[in-house]
Structure prediction request, 335 residues.
Amino acid sequence: MTLGIRTLGTPPSGSPLTVSALGLGCMGMSEFYGTADEQTAVDTIHRALDLGVTFLDTADMYGPFTNEELLGKALTGRRDEVQLATKFGNERRPDGSWVGINGRPEYVHAACDASLSRLGVDHVDLYYQHRVDPDVPIEETVGAMAELVEAGKVRHLGLSEAAADTVRRAHDVHPITALQSEYSLFTRDLEDDVLPTLRELGIGLVAYSPLGRGLLTGAIGAGGSGLDEGDARRAGRFPRFEGDALEANLALVAQVRELAVAKGITPGQLALAWVLAQGDDVVPIPGTKRVRYLEENVAAADVELTADDLAAIDAAVPRDAVAGDRYADMSSVNR
Prediction:
């Protein structure tokens, strides 16, 4: 397995951060996707570092708070090996209840200090606003984030699920290194306005859920078989996993599987290779909490897709063929 590097943010307008070509999303190690086991998660993080996956992604809301604490434990003595990213803005209470989206400047500072404490570090390499607060001008939020850079607590700034105009306004205040948004064979809407804007401004794209929240691995079956009882994908939060929509989407997965088998790889590896092929400014961060899936994902970096392969994939999964919205509540994305 050979894992290269990619650069998020292009000079002169961007703020460049060099990361592993494939990152690791750590959310599921603590919440949302079934049962969690701390030692298994730590083992997976350590194996990721050994394989060259050094771009680690978390957020204060995951757990809530416990995912950052997990990374803090896992990175003891290895902080210098990683590019560490976390997020603020989806405010939750310790009991997990929801407060709301918060982009107020004073909260930006308080949230960052709390994240640094939980992670056990003196800075993070990339700090995102997790969701855009509709009640606070983006200029005010990013202005406060810029103060964190000046204080040495944060090296680079990012946004998540922001619209093209919002990204542009934020970038006018302080260079934005990366936008994190959902991007996969199953989610391509940002190709219309957002991705062209990122490339105009020299901003990288960090693709979360590059495996369609696991659908594209082929491990999820009819009726949600393959998912634990406590998995959020069974709870109505993600319409693509329900009823007729799930059936239609599994039919698309079957076509992905057929193409993957022809290349001697797994469906998930084909899906990740497709994301990696969309440009050197795109870095997928597939999430997993198990070493064997991590190793499978990393091997996707060695998959070469020809022009014919890419055309076949586009034909098998037409951009608008996926059934169902990606969230039951889409109000907080692309704004």
